[in-house]
Design goal:
The protein is an alpha+beta fold. It has one domain: Beta Polymerase, domain 2, CATH 3.30.460. The protein is about 45% helix and about 20% strand. It has eight helices and nine strands. The strands form three sheets. A five-stranded mixed β-sheet has the order 4-5-7-3-6. Strands 1-2 form a two-stranded antiparallel ribbon.
Length: about 180
């Protein structure tokens, strides 16, 4: 894998064989372009009749299972640019779907729900998990990757998020 990334100019090795990313934003954009949130994951769809996003998030933050918001809902908490109409919640254990649905007061639907419990393609989506206003949210990098090909204004939200990520990287290089 490293050899391929090196051949494509994404990383370099120094004389001690340490690997460095040449242009992190370019590599992130490449990863995101190849990722399709809608096909990479498994979804259980639900409907909530709660119209107040803050009340819904309050129910979600009381969950005692491993979860993390992603998509427009996660981005809304980190960099409010596009108000979410659908909440996507990664769950670590799909066997806890019913428990989560009861706790958040969700009703199962065949399709077209406004809350989706997402069984991730890889548990690595939880890497860098953090609490934002008491709600678990995936890392900014994961948010960006999930949003790039996301329907319903995902590209707009991902662009705003990429600016935030690049600012964080710039600050990290300075300090």
């Amino acid at each position: 894998m490293t050899a391929t990334l090196q051949a494509q100019g994404y990383v370099v090795r120094d004389e001690s064989y340490r690997v460095s990313v040449v242009d992190p934003a370019r590599l992130l954009r490449r990863w995101a372009a190849a990722h399709d949130f809608s096909t990479a994951n498994k979804f259980d769809e639900f409907q909530t009749f709660e119209q107040d996003l803050d009340r819904l998030l309050s129910r979600i933050k009381s969950l005692t299972v491993s979860y993390a918001l992603t998509g427009l809902a996660g981005a809304w908490l980190v960099a409010p640019y596009v108000r979410p109409v659908t909440l996507d919640i990664y769950i670590l254990d799909r066997d806890q779907t019913s428990e989560i649905a009861r706790a958040v007061e969700l009703r199962p639907v065949e399709k077209g729900g406004n809350v989706r419990l997402v069984s991730p393609y890889d548990s690595g989506v939880f890497y860098g998990l953090r609490a934002v206003d008491g709600v678990n949210v995936v890392s900014n990098v994961q948010l960006y990757v999930d949003l790039v090909n996301y329907p319903a204004r995902g590209e707009e939200a991902s662009t705003a998020l990429l600016r935030l990520i690049e600012d964080e990287w710039s600050k990290a290089l300075v300090s």
